[in-house]
Amino acid sequence: MPELPEVETIMRNLVRADADKPSIIGQVIESVQVYWAKTIQEPDVKSFTETLPGMAIKGMQRRGKFLQFDLNEGHLLVHLRMSGDLYLVQEDLQALPDPHDRLHIRFKSGWRLVFNDTRKFGRVWFVMDVQQVYAKLGPEPLDPELTVEQFFAMLQATHRQVKPLLLDQHFLAGLGNIYTDEVLFLAKIHPNENSGNLTQTQASTLLGAIRSVLEEGIRRNGASIDWVYRGGDFQNYFNVYQRAGEPCKVCGTVIEKKLVGQRGTHYCPNCQALIEEQGA
Predict the structure, then answer these.
(1) Given CA atoms 169, 171, 174, 179 in this order, what sign does their dihedral have?
(2) Average pLDDT, stretch 219-243?
(3) What phi, psi does 150 have (nearest 5°)?
(4) Among 16, 40, 101, 199, which one is most buried in terms of CB atoms within 10 A?
(5) What's the topology of domain 4-134?
(6) The pLDDT of residue 16 is above 50
């Protein structure tokens, strides 16, 4: 947490201008203050704080769970990890940093970009080539160029349990624990299923479920399930996540929770039977 829909929502909020705040696009950096040195992954803190002032934000995009700020020279990349958040405030509304603020980027407009990260796992990079960071990321699940045939080949090449596989950012970029559970339920695939057992039809269903769940999550501004991320309401539409012990909305079977790949996993044992059990 945050996952792709929450990161996408944060990006859209920063890009969109409204009555309460300007767009981050076009903002010119005046100064940079780092409050937690380990937040800066690349370059060193001194170079980071001395290089950014004077640069303008020309554009913004998302890659997997990364936020990417395109500057007139180079790129600023942010990964929120477990508890990070990014938002704009006016200088006079937050004179002193919050105890959990790790980075402030002040703009000449009088606004400030705040990176708040309670657990200190979030990281920031300034690079000239984004592939220095993105090189090992898998494809974007919402990219229309990712075809069913390509996705099926990816699944067949791994022969791994499908839940940990979908969480692997080298396989597919952006999915986390919440949305993977919801995706597998919609696709009627058991989280322990071996990816090599899936047919091309099931691969097509799975890719469709991934896109459907992520798009719905984005439409609902993500899920607000704890103090880390607030503002979305997708949590009100969960089918399995955090519903252990409750009846399945489709068949009435009790939703179960177990560890799969060291991650708490929610699923319906009836709707999501293993393939070998279906053939029994």
Answers:
(1) negative
(2) 85
(3) -65, -45
(4) 40
(5) N-terminal domain of MutM-like DNA repair proteins (3.20.190)
(6) yes
